[in-house]
Design a protein that fits this description.
The protein is of the alpha+beta class. Helices cover 60% and strands 17% of the residues. InterPro entries: Metal_resp_DNA-bind_regulator, Tscrpt_reg_PadR_N, WH-like_DNA-bd_sf, WH_DNA-bd_sf.
Length: 112
């Protein structure tokens, strides 16, 4: 499920939710957390993750700062106040969509 359209459509929601739960994270940490939680079923590539992070930052939902850790510069991402509000909305939208999708997929063939 690495580059599926379903993942692309939910990537921003995934990022925002992880940052809500973890306060701040750097890009590699986000990708590793997704991989860990999904037992390797979802792998976020740099080509998908970083454009999504940059868009969220440009939209004012994330702020960044850098820290030097073990002589390496890490760019951390953190939710803005607007981002904290948006994650609530995106989670509600995702839950509603999942419920509607389950309704459709669980229909008996004779009801179609």
């Amino acid at each position: 499920m690495n580059a599926s359209p379903l993942l692309k459509g939910t990537l921003q929601t995934i990022i925002l939710k992880l940052l809500e739960d973890n306060d701040r994270m750097y890009g590699y940490e986000i990708s590793q957390k997704v991989k860990e939680v999904t037992k390797g079923e979802i792998v976020l590539t740099q080509g998908a993750l970083y454009p999504a992070l940059h868009k969220l930052e440009a939209d004012g939902l994330l702020k960044t700062y850098t820290e030097v850790v073990d002589n390496r510069v890490r760019k951390y991402y953190h939710l803005t106040e607007e981002g904290e509000k948006d994650v609530v909305n995106k989670m509600k939208e995702a839950q509603d969509f999942i419920e509607q999708l389950q309704s459709i997929l669980n229909l008996k063939p004779d009801l179609l």
